[in-house]
Automatic annotation (TrEMBL):
Key word Signal present: yes
PANTHER family noted in UniProt: PERIPLASMIC BINDING COMPONENT OF ABC TRANSPORTER
Coiled-coil spans in chain: none
Superkingdom of this protein's organism: Bacteria
Family matches, as Pfam families: SBP_bac_5
Keyword flag Signal: yes
Domain Solute-binding protein family: 91-450
Cleaved signal peptide residues: 1-22
Protein name: ABC transporter substrate-binding protein
């Protein structure tokens, strides 16, 4: 896969860029030889993103601060959420408390009196209100598309109001990072401002920036207290191969890189200290059908194909066991989404069922003759899978699916494209079926809305930029999504979520193939305290907001 992803998944996409062709020696890796370690208080991080441009605007997903992840070391959220345990209550951060009204159209934040900016000025309710006003005034900065209405300051409290329920957006709102009004109010164009000397409330400030290496140093007066990690050093490598080499050699202590053979390339180099953990949130990867094209408009065909896909083979062969396996036909990743499963699907599995799939097809009027499946009109069922060349995990996944559906008499071929051409074709509906990702959120709503929402539906030829690339048209699904988002009680939400799961299983607008991980590789040689499966206090990926929580928990390893 490539870095050309929906902004919400940019961090994931950059982790899964396949190993590029060798580009020879380059200054882009010049920062790799600088020393680190707990003795010097330095933690080294790396990503395969190539040289960066000096831009620390925290609102821009394309900035170096976002790409490398250091924006979350400088700017802090109102509350800290845990994407891999979305049902857990968020930890208070800049806000000591927050309260929603019963219908989620109003939230009141109470700020922590101790919070202050790195330049010593107090962090006030006016700063929080100003940040939300920025998002309301500048849609280009409002990456989550939150529909702000009223924004007011009441003493030390900030009150936000909305015209509609924000139940599905509540985590996005409470984890919003805050910027200082006394600096940003004088910026003429915040949508393009590079913010090269960023000032936040976090424990780190920018020390030096080069296209290859960015260094942050600890703020001695951080309002939450002293930090054990005194310096963060981010190196931008040219490709996965260079980043993997740096990880294996100990020059980088924290990264996320897709490694088809991670046991040999990384773990074996230091079995005691080299670790990785790739948990999932509530986003997935899957095979999207163009349901506006025949015969893929037939739900029986899509369901039958879903019933024969070998997710375990995709997990072991295409995703190298790094991406969590999808084991439930609803597509909801487990264990993150276990509490959302409808009763009828709690024990359901994704084990291939070829005979069951053949019966579904036969009952719908499809006929198998001479090893060829023919649709109810008598035409052979053929399709073309498309994805960008070089996205090896996706291409391998398509090859597995191609072999799986051959058992039903379906002929498929795999066509590769440039990422740009593929992206345009997906948006415009110019494809039969393609592996693609979904959005993710605090509930499975974001995933299902991305796949099935009729409000996002565009005709073939008109670009859909934000979802429903498969042109899935289903009134019941659209209404269930509305019901979930606007529900005023848990019973209504459960009913709506159960309806969405049934539609996903029975009509298969998309075949879930893998959970989207929020993972990382790291070393315990110099630093300990990392999140693990046994202590899942945060997703380990260092481009997520909770990366700050990880750094604050790290302490030097005992020698």
């Amino acid at each position: 896969m490539s870095a050309r992803r929906h902004p919400a998944l940019r961090a994931l996409s950059l982790a899964t860029v396949v190993v590029a062709l060798a580009t020879g020696c380059s200054s882009a890796n010049s920062g790799a030889n600088k020393g680190g370690g707990a003795a010097s208080g330095v933690l080294t991080l790396g990503k395969p993103d190539g040289p960066q441009t000096n831009n620390s605007n925290p609102f821009l997903s394309t900035s170096a601060g976002a790409t490398l992840g250091y924006r979350f070391m400088i700017y802090e959220p109102l509350a800290m959420t845990n994407q891999i345990r979305p049902a857990d209550k968020a930890d208070p951060w800049l806000a000591s408390d927050w309260k929603w009204d019963l219908n989620f159209t109003k939230v009141t934040f109470t700020l922590d009196d101790k919070a202050k900016w790195a330049d010593g000025k107090p962090l006030t309710a006016e700063d929080v209100a100003y940040t939300f006003e920025l998002l309301k005034k500048h849609p280009a900065l409002n990456g989550n598309g939150i529909p702000f209405d009223g924004i007011s300051v009441q003493g030390k409290k900030v009150v936000l109001t909305f015209q509609d329920s924000q139940y599905v957006n509540q985590n996005k709102i409470i984890q919003q990072f805050i910027v200082p009004k006394h600096i940003w109010k004088d910026v003429k164009d915040p949508e393009t401002w590079p913010n090269r000397t960023p000032v936040g409330s976090g424990p780190y400030k920018l020390k030096t920036f080069t296209p290859q290496t960015t260094t942050l140093t600890a703020t001695p007066t951080y309002w939450k207290g002293a930090t054990k990690v005194k310096e963060l050093r981010y190196t931008a490598y040219n490709d996965n191969s260079a980043a993997t080499t740096a990880l294996a050699g100990g020059k980088v202590e924290w990264s996320f890189v897709f490694m088809p053979n991670y046991k040999q390339l990384f773990i074996s180099k230091d079995p005691k200290n080299h670790k990785l953990w790739f948990p999932s949130g509530l986003g997935i990867h899957g095979l999207w059908f163009n349901t506006a094209r025949k015969p893929f408009d037939n739900p029986a065909l899509r369901k039958a194909m879903a019933m024969v896909v070998d997710r375990n083979a995709i997990y072991t062969q295409a995703e190298a066991t790094l991406y969590p396996e999808i084991t439930n036909p609803t597509g909801i990743p487990l264990p993150a989404g276990e509490s959302f499963l409808a009763p009828e699907y709690k024990s359901a599995t994704t084990k291939p069922d070829v005979e069951g799939a053949k019966k579904v097809l036969a009952d719908a009027g499809f006929k198998l003759a001479g090893g060829v499946l023919k649709d109810p009109s008598g035409k052979p069922v053929k399709l073309t899978f498309t994805d960008p060349a070089g996205w090896n995990d996706y291409i391998t996944g398509l090859s597995i699916i191609k072999d799986n559906i051959k058992q039903l008499g379906i002929e498929a071929k795999v066509k590769t494209q440039t990422a740009e051409a593929w992206g345009a074709d997906v948006a415009n509906g110019n494809f039969d079926a393609t592996l693609h990702w979904t959005n993710s959120g605090a509930t499975p709503y974001d995933m299902y809305q991305n796949i099935m929402d009729g409000a996002l539906l565009q005709p073939i030829g008109k670009a859909s930029q934000i979802g429903n690339f498969g042109r899935f048209k289903n009134t019941e699904a659209t209404e269930a999504l509305k019901d979930f988002a606007s529900a005023t009680d848990d019973t209504a939400r459960i009913n709506a979520m159960n309806t969405l799961q049934k539609i996903m299983v029975e009509q298969a607008p998309m075949i879930p193939t893998a959970a989207a991980p929020i993972g990382a590789e790291y070393s315990t040689k110099n630093w300990v305290g990392w999140p693990t499966e046994a202590d899942p206090y945060a997703p380990p990926q260092h481009t997520q907001p909770s990366a700050l929580e990880i750094v604050l928990k790290l302490k030097p390893a005992k020698k």
